[in-house]
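Intended use. Records like the one below are meant for learning the mapping from a protein sequence to its folded structure. Do not use them to infer anything beyond what is encoded.
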Amino acid sequence: MSSVSEVVTVTIEIKDAAVSQAGFGTPLIAGYHTYWPELVRTFSDADEMTLPPLSMPTTHPIYKTALALKSQNPCPPQFKVGKCAGATTQTVTLTPGTPVGDEVFSLEVDGVAVSVTASTTPPSLRSPRRWLPRSTLPYRA
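Structure written out for the chain above:
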């Protein structure tokens, strides 16, 4: 009969949370804000953004991201906040599958009721101003 040492090979590998090499990098959090004029600012702690004169609210998405970043173990010693040029906007296009003429579609956007009535006239017979994007029109108003 064979001994255990002849049948089993044991390999022990230790994986810890330490950074394996220098140059872990400095993370950048990009977002729109109006709290300081520079395009990029460096921070050591998320709470630095909430102190005057910056006074970013703790509910701001940039602050929440910075807090999550600094809560990691290990966490980077510094991080940067990059300022986006403009606020993000979201556009949603809703297209009914087969609308019936004079059918009304209603929905609410931020508490405001919006209604659209389907037309019985095909789009090709209506004025192009109503259904073509402005950039595709051959003339300008």
